[in-house]
Design brief:
alpha/beta; Arc Repressor Mutant, subunit A; phosphoprotein; five-stranded parallel beta sheet; WalR-like; about 55% helix; NreC/VraR/RcsB-like_REC; globular; Rossmann fold; transcription regulation; DNA-binding
């Protein structure tokens, strides 16, 4: 039996994932967490084989959690299940230690297949991610300026380009508005842009958000 823990800050999404996985006879959801602190407590007393983890969570992002688990030598395999398109975070997640990346809007059966695959210690990637990995290996240098952004800077860029105010971003990520402003300033500097309108145009042109 594959033991799975879910970590997502939206209870309805966790329920949908749990129902999908519970239909599989070889998968058992043994715990759920809504944020990093809940996950920490859960992992202390609940052994699991696969952690299904969201990227966009309050406080520590899923990529932050990946880094912590990697530093601690955690043995469970991490599968990222995110609302973000694969071309935004998939390669970053895999480089950070994830064993796979699936989109929440994808085929539910794909999630089941992904859990089974990573539980065996194998990577799960879609054809699109595989193509991106090949391109990243053969590219002579960083192809896009936003690839030089930190994970939190990229997250800030995407949220601003999606129309969210700095105060909304601060609340959603459990950060201070001042901290979010610092991330915004770093993004503007690294991308050689001057305002939110230019950020939005950049994000659309590079496929980070929809038009």
């Amino acid at each position: 039996m594959i033991r799975v823990i879910l970590c997502d800050d939206h209870a309805l999404i966790r329920r949908g994932i749990r129902d999908t996985l519970s239909d599989a006879p070889d998968i058992q959801v043994v715990g759920e967490a809504g944020d990093y602190s809940e996950l920490r407590g859960l992992l202390r007393g609940t052994p699991c084989d696969v952690l299904v983890l969201d990227i966009n969570m309050p406080g520590r992002s899923g990529l932050d959690v990946l880094a912590v688990l990697k530093d601690e030598g955690a043995t469970m395999k991490v599968l990222i299940c995110s609302m973000y398109p694969e071309d935004q975070y998939a390669i970053r997640a895999l480089r950070a230690g994830a064993y796979g990346y699936v989109n929440k809007g994808g085929d539910p059966q794909q999630l089941v297949t992904a859990v089974r695959t990573v539980s065996q210690g194998r990577k799960f990637v879609t054809p699109d991610i595989a193509q991106m990995l090949v391109e990243s290996l053969t590219a002579p240098e960083v192809a896009h300026a936003h690839e030089k952004l930190s994970d939190r800077e990229l997250q800030t860029l995407v949220m601003i380009a999606s129309g969210k105010r700095l105060s909304d971003i601060a609340n959603e990520l459990t950060l201070s508005p001042k901290t979010v402003s610092v991330y915004r300033a770093r993004v503007l500097e690294k991308l050689a842009l001057t305002n939110n309108s230019e950020l939005t145009v950049y994000a659309i042109r590079n496929g980070l958000v929809g038009e």
